[in-house]
TrEMBL record:
PANTHER family noted in UniProt: HTH-TYPE TRANSCRIPTIONAL REGULATOR BETI, HTH-TYPE TRANSCRIPTIONAL REGULATOR RUTR
Domain of life assignment: Bacteria
Sequence ranges assigned to domain HTH tetR-type in this UniProt record: 19-78
UniProt name for this protein: Helix-turn-helix domain containing protein
InterPro entries: Homeodomain-like_sf, HTH-type_TetR-like_transc_reg, HTH_TetR, Tet_transcr_reg_TetR-rel_C_sf, TetR_SbtR-like_C
DNA-binding region boundaries: 41-60
Record organism: Streptomyces tropicalis
Keyword Transcription regulation: yes
One Pfam family of this chain: TetR_C_43
Length: 214
């Protein structure tokens, strides 16, 4: 008598309300990390998200897991902005500009320091999100470079340093009150990226690997 081979059961899909709760937690955490830094109490995050503390810990067992999820989600949305810009059929430099302004709106200047100070930089989720974003940004820049619109002596690292620095509030200035200046200053920077270049840049083209080793 043969025994029937058991059919493996599929893992149950998360309920829609559970997914919404997780998304609310990540959104609330991102907002509060930008406003107060990564040490903001998880109770406050739960309150802003409109969920109980148990729901936060059911989704994220510790603070590092939540911070990592927030940073990865920002990287993913930034990569999506690059993908959308790449899909545009219009001007290549306009697509690059669209990406830069979207990246600034994601508040990467406030979240990037968490990558080096809060948790493992080599976590697989973080590395995958980072590699995907860098690849897409390089493709976006290369398209503008090939069109003769982007000066040849800048790299992905140059671009991301400028976005982070120009969207970071000066000392003593509230992060959320800086919005009316950020896009103005980013546009000044973008105009400086246009080819032909008006000056020779000191130093070498900066890559993301250069930044990681600095």
């Amino acid at each position: 008598m043969q025994t029937a081979t058991p059919v493996p059961r599929k893992a149950p899909r998360p309920r829609a309300d559970a997914l919404r709760n997780r998304e609310r937690i990540v959104t609330a955490a991102r907002e509060m990390f930008v406003e107060h830094g990564p040490e903001v109490p998880l109770d406050e995050i739960a309150r802003r998200a409109g969920v109980g503390n148990a729901t936060v810990y059911r989704n994220f067992p510790d603070r590092d897991a939540l911070v990592r999820e927030v940073v990865c989600s920002v990287m993913d949305r930034t990569a999506q902005a690059a993908t959308q810009a790449l899909a545009e059929t219009g001007d290549a430099f306009d697509a690059l500009e669209h990406f830069v302004h979207t990246a600034a709106d994601e508040r990467i200047s406030a979240l990037c320091p968490m990558v080096s100070s809060t948790f493992d930089q080599n976590h697989p989720d973080l590395e995958a999100a980072r590699e995907r974003g860098e690849r897409l940004i390089e493709e976006l820049m290369e398209r503008a470079r090939a069109a003769g619109q982007l000066r040849p002596d800048v790299g992905v690292g140059d671009l991301m340093v400028a976005v982070a620095q120009l969207s970071r509030p000066p000392a003593g200035t509230g992060c959320l009150g800086l919005d009316r200046f950020v896009h103005r200053h980013l546009q000044l920077f973008l105009d400086g990226l246009r080819a032909p270049a008006r000056s020779v840049l000191p130093g070498e083209v900066t890559t993301m690997e250069d930044l990681r080793q600095a």
